[in-house]
Design a protein that fits this description.
mainly alpha, two-stranded parallel ribbon, extended
Length: about 170
């Protein structure tokens, strides 16, 4: 897939940042094709997966602190917010803090894009995820019959299969 993108014209020099949801397959492929480009891990995905490391009582407050980091006005403010998060949660949530410390650089790469108006679009893969949800919504069975004819044909077919060799 990545080689196909290159073949279609998305060359290495045109790419400034790659935003991923953290899937290992894509990350491994990026090293082969776009090895020199910074990779941004989706803040929304990190927040969701990070909740598994957080006590249930804190599952509302910790994501708010993460939100403050990703919505900071710049990298310096984000770093300050991160230090505040570490100080606040390191004793209570050591696993969550350790996980974030390993990935904080990959959650703040989008700040390197000079045009700050793009930040809200590129700090997460939510725009892509929402498109996939819509595609799935439109392509799965409707859950209701579109009209009386389709309902009758379904039930006729269903009954003929179930009762094909039975006497009624």
């Amino acid at each position: 897939l990545l080689y196909n993108l290159c073949w279609q014209g998305l060359m290495d020099e045109a790419v400034e940042l790659i935003v991923v949801d953290g899937g290992n397959g894509l990350l491994a492929g990026l090293d082969l094709v776009y090895d020199t480009k910074p990779v941004e891990h989706s803040g929304a995905h990190k927040t969701c997966t990070g909740r598994t490391h957080v006590r249930e009582a804190d599952q509302e407050e910790v994501p708010k602190d993460l939100h403050n980091i990703s919505h900071a006005s710049g990298i310096r403010e984000a770093q300050r917010m991160f230090r505040r998060l570490v100080h606040k949660w390191c004793a209570q949530q050591p696993k969550a803090v350790a996980s974030l410390q390993m990935n904080i650089e990959k959650l703040c790469n989008f700040f390197a894009i000079p045009n700050g108006s793009w930040w809200r679009h590129i700090r997460t893969t939510n725009a892509i995820v929402l498109r996939f949800v819509e595609v799935r919504r439109r392509t799965r069975p409707m859950g209701v019959f579109s009209d009386r004819t389709s309902m009758e044909s379904f039930y006729t077919r269903d009954f003929s299969i179930k009762y094909h060799n039975r006497c009624l």
